[in-house]
Amino acid sequence: MADGEDVHGLKGVLVMFQSCLDSKEEILMDPYLEGWKGLVRFLNTMGPIFSFISKDAVAKIQIMETFRGSEQQENYISLQAMVNYELTNGLVDLKQPGTYPTSGCRTILRLHRALRWLHLFLEGLRTSSPSSKTSTLCTDSYNASLANYHPWIIRKAATMAFYALPTRDAFLENMKVGTTEAAIEMLGEALPSISRVYDITEDLFTQHKLLDLP
Ligand code: 1PZ
């Protein structure tokens, strides 16, 4: 992203996840990826120490955008279509890494797990007291979710980086919603849609036994 490009606050990003769901409650890929791109932009405003995290997210977003720009784009229009297409055509490594190290299913699974962290973290922030530390909130939500899938070295690097997070009030102001109270209210309105997207994806991946993809 070019310097000086308009960085929208977090509200627009969270609303993007609301617009992922179509009338059949399927998750549309494009707004899902747009939501992730907004999260990466937001993360980048917090300094270069987080770039090893945003780079991984960007790499995963790009894998999915390549599918969406390919001849198979219709098969990636939603998460449901992707699962159906990749499984029917044997395009997923189910047990160990092999021919398809960048399948859509395993790539989305990584983002999906991170979405659980995001929900826990923002919910923690929403219900925190003014004296709470963002680094503690972040570490707790990370340990309760994503950390379980990361090797020691990444857990260590992530937990160190969390100490560089802005204070609670600065973090809430960085969302660009207005006062800290307004930011908290916005989180209360927006978090249910993140939760909904998470739950639908979790059901989809459970149903097809895809939760442990290598
Ligand atoms: C606001 C503070 C941000 C904290 C972000 C918390 C997440 C810490 C994640 C640390 C990830 C480190 C980089 C590389 C990880 C990859 O090994 C894994 C597994 O992928 P594989 O190696 O199997 O291909 N990648 C992930 O788990 C996906 C991580 C995405 C993180 C996105 C964070 C978005 C933050 C938004 C902030 C508002």
From TrEMBL:
Pfam families: GLTP (PF08718). It is found in: Cell membrane; Cytoplasm, Cytosol; Endosome membrane; Golgi apparatus, trans-Golgi network membrane. It is a peripheral membrane protein. Coiled coil: none annotated. Keywords: Cell membrane, Cytoplasm, Endosome, Golgi apparatus, Lipid transport, Lipid-binding, Membrane, Nucleus, Transport. It catalyses: N-(9Z-octadecenoyl)-sphing-4-enine-1-phosphate(in) = N-(9Z-octadecenoyl)-sphing-4-enine-1-phosphate(out); N-(hexadecanoyl)-sphing-4-enine-1-phosphate(in) = N-(hexadecanoyl)-sphing-4-enine-1-phosphate(out). One of its GO terms (molecular function) is ceramide 1-phosphate binding. GO terms for biological process: negative regulation of interleukin-1 beta production. It comes from the Eukaryota. Its main location: membrane. GO terms for cellular component: cytosol; endosome membrane; Golgi apparatus; nuclear outer membrane; plasma membrane. Residues 27-176 form the Glycolipid transfer protein domain. Belongs to the GLTP family. This is Ceramide-1-phosphate transfer protein. It comes from Python bivittatus (Burmese python).
